[in-house]
Amino acid sequence: MLLVTDIRDQRERIETGLRKRNITDFSVLDQIIEADDLRKKSQFELDNLLAESNQLSREIGDLYKSGKTEEANQIKAQTTQLKEKTKELQAELNAYKEKIDALLFQIPNALHPSVVAGKGEEDNIVVSTFGKADHKDGLPHWELAAKYNIIDFELGTKITGAGFPVYKGKGAKIQRALINYFLDKNTAAGYKEILPPLMVNEASARGTGQLPDKEAQMYEIPLDGFYMIPTSEVPVTNIYRDVILEDKDFPIKMTAYSPCFRREAGSYGKDVRGLNRLHQFDKVEIVRIEKPENSYHALEEMKNHVAEILKELGLTYRILHLCGGDTGFASASTFDFEVWSAAQDRWLEVSSVSNFETFQANRLKLRYKTEKGNELCHSLNGSSLALPRVLAAVLEHYQTENGIDVPEVLKPYTQFDVIN
Asked: pLDDT digit string (tens) for 158-167?
């Protein structure tokens, strides 16, 4: 979430960023400042009362030592009244803090100056394209999956419901090959592998911004107060919740594979057919914790890293810099990667690489030591990569009359060259 000090000191910058997100009502910012003024007033009164109470306690101790019990008891009666007033002020102070946090949770991150204004995906900027997006005759991946009996969508519907496919035989093995290939690429680039829990508590979900913004998309387990993770970014980033780092700790680079769970409302047709949109899917994630001065260099490194993987897979892809209206709630700047689906004649998103700046770190209380005191870190994450649409593009791109060829980089993992 945003810092109250930034809302006070950088109001123009924050309003400019919110306008790029098509937000024009800034009354919530005024409410935050008003509540913070009242919080400061309560804190001042509380500090004075505590100081007075401490002074009286010292006087009482001195009087008792001097044998002046009656005078000490008289002053002691005053401290009882002060304690009651202190409790009232502490409750008032807590209420103001809760109100400020509730208001701050409503405000998305301030956008980086490089992000352009826009309403939605039609206003995103194409940064670069690799390969040629030609339409080719061929079967879409759901027909290929049925033809070669490698993914069973109907069986998944029987077992659980729509959006939970069953991978079979070579379909399961190429899925595992992609996961291992992505992890190996990430660890070779210096990312430490993490195997996180698949459920998180509310504090973790709030820490990375999934709550309250994306509560409707998350699968909740109310009896235990847990949420199924929508991405391994959530548990991995929360490793550093309530942590103060030192210079020697940077850079922090982590990667994790996990199943992901999202209750996404979908339409019908090719946009959600097959592997295009699932409620459970596999994803390999990269996460970085950086000092503010290095975070945008790190974002560029992450972007280049994902691009290299897609090149090695031989897929046509493009990189988009998302406009304000399409940038996620917690992000300051996001690059999306889309692969070309020749059989569907459309682009499929397979990765988002984002810099959250201090937005998550403020919620997480993730800081690092400086000469001036503790400062908030910057956090970043990216899909490296999301499996379903990558697999869909691989199946469609490499189909031949004799089956589906396996990309060269995956053959050491699959131990077979073709799906037939």
From this structure: 999 999 999 9
Long-range contacts of 28-32 (CB under 8 A, 24+ apart): 28/103, 28/106, 28/107, 29/107, 31/103, 32/4, 32/7, 32/100, 32/103, 32/104
> What spatial distance separates the first Cα and last Cα of the chain, rounded to whole Å?
51
SS3 385: strand
Closest C-alpha to 378, from 284, 286, 298:
298
Give, for 132, the enclosing helix (H) or strand (E): none
**CB within 8 A of 300, min separation 6: which ones?**
none
Q: Is the dihedral of CA 272, 388, 131, 286 positive or negative?
A: positive
pLDDT digits (tens, 9 = 90+) for 250-305: 999 999 999 999 997 554 555 678 999 999 999 999 999 999 999 999 999 999 99
The sheet that has 226-228: what strands, in order across it? 199-201, 226-228, 220-221
Q: Prior bond to 235 cis, omega within 30?
A: no
Read off the tokens for 177: 């090959």
- Please tell me the pTM assigned to this model: 0.91
Tokens of 202: 């509310």
- Of the candidates 98, 95, 82, 6, which has an alpha carbon nearest to the alpha carbon of residue 45? 82
| Token reading at 167 | 């991978």
